[in-house]
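R.M. (postdoc): so does anyone remember the format we settled on? I'll just put the structure tokens first.
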């Protein structure tokens, strides 16, 4: 199995998100960077498949030189090689991003076998874009399914499952090479170990400078959702609070009168 995982460097969202003065970007001065939970699962799944079936794995991202940190995080848990499509850090729209990735895939496959699987996170954690993986698959002429939460690959075919309404599963069988958009919950990603980080630090990252492709959608501004204030009411302490708890549960309908 030969697997490529495509990830995106996004701001870590554990803290309060603020925008730059022009409203076009997230102010990252006080934020770290990471990849989305969907992509963490994609990286983990690639490592698991190669561990089980043999083969090779590569991680790729489009972004500034600093995005090498996210590539090394992936290599620290078992991804073997990394490719950085290095930009000046400016924002690339989904059409331009997909075009650059598809071109890079063709270059990486030119001297060898095609990637059996190309894995994407289902959507970007920062912008919510879900179309890059689909655009790449279309450009390469490969089958694609998104929203995947289970993968079984063998003998030139992959069975991919995603949750359906009503609690069931939709099952897709695709001939490889194929493209999958995976969701959080596909697996439980491991944490990079100290030896893994040391090995990743010594590995080379291949660098490609992609050509920009103007003509896609233009971002006008970002908008933060309106927050809601919450309050806490202390209704009592110790055993003396029991009647107040019962009254509260009765009032909200948890217990009957």
């Amino acid at each position: 199995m030969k697997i490529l995982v495509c990830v995106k460097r996004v701001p870590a969202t554990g803290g309060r998100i603020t925008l730059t003065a022009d409203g076009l970007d997230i102010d990252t001065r006080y934020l770290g960077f990471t990849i989305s939970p969907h992509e963490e699962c994609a990286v983990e799944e690639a490592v698991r498949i190669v561990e089980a079936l043999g083969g090779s794995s590569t991680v790729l991202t489009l972004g500034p030189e600093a995005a090498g940190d996210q590539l090394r995080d992936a290599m620290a848990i078992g991804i073997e090689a990394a490719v950085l499509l290095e930009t000046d850090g400016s924002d690339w729209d989904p059409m331009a991003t997909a075009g650059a990735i598809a071109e890079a895939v063709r270059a990486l496959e030119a001297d060898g076998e095609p990637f059996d699987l190309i894995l994407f996170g289902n959507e970007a954690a920062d912008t919510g874009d879900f179309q890059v993986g689909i655009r790449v698959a279309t450009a390469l002429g490969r089958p694609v399914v998104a929203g995947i939460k289970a993968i079984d690959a063998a003998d030139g075919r992959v069975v991919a499952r995603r949750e359906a309404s009503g609690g069931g599963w939709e099952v897709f069988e695709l001939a490889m090479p194929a493209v999958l958009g995976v969701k959080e919950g596909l697996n439980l990603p491991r944490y990079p170990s100290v030896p893994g980080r040391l090995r990743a630090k010594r590995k080379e990252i291949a660098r490609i400078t992609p050509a920009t492709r103007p003509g896609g959608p233009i971002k006008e501004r970002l908008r933060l959702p309106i927050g809601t204030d919450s309050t806490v009411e202390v209704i009592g302490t110790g055993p003396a609070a029991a009647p107040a708890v019962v009254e509260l549960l009765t009032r909200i309908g948890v217990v009957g009168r």
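R.M.: ...and that's the designed sequence above, right after the tokens. Also worth knowing: Residues 2-208 form a domain with the Rossmann fold fold (CATH 3.40.50.620). The two ends are 63 Å apart (CA to CA).
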